[in-house]
Amino acid sequence: MSDIEFIEDYVQLQLDTARITLGILPVVQIGDDRYLPDNERYRNLLISQIGKSISGVFAQGEQTTVIVFDDGSCLSISHENYDLDPTEMLVLEKDGEPIVVWD
To answer: What pTM was estimated for this model as a whole?
Structure first.
């Protein structure tokens, strides 16, 4: 991941040739510790993922998507964490390819 941009109530993860927009703020997991958006360290821990490679993106059930980094840390995006139901939980935009949307 080369950059992260905070935009109102969502974030965009910039990759080399793609962008992932997260309509739900992710939970940051580092080791056994989980950090929610209301944690005072949350923003810095999310930014600390810049420079890491994504090793996989996985579905956990029907409501959760997990982005795993090469060091084992991950971002968990889940409808279960929020009362609001955004239209798009995760959007992948890759140069020259169709946009992929997870609701």
So the answer is: 0.86
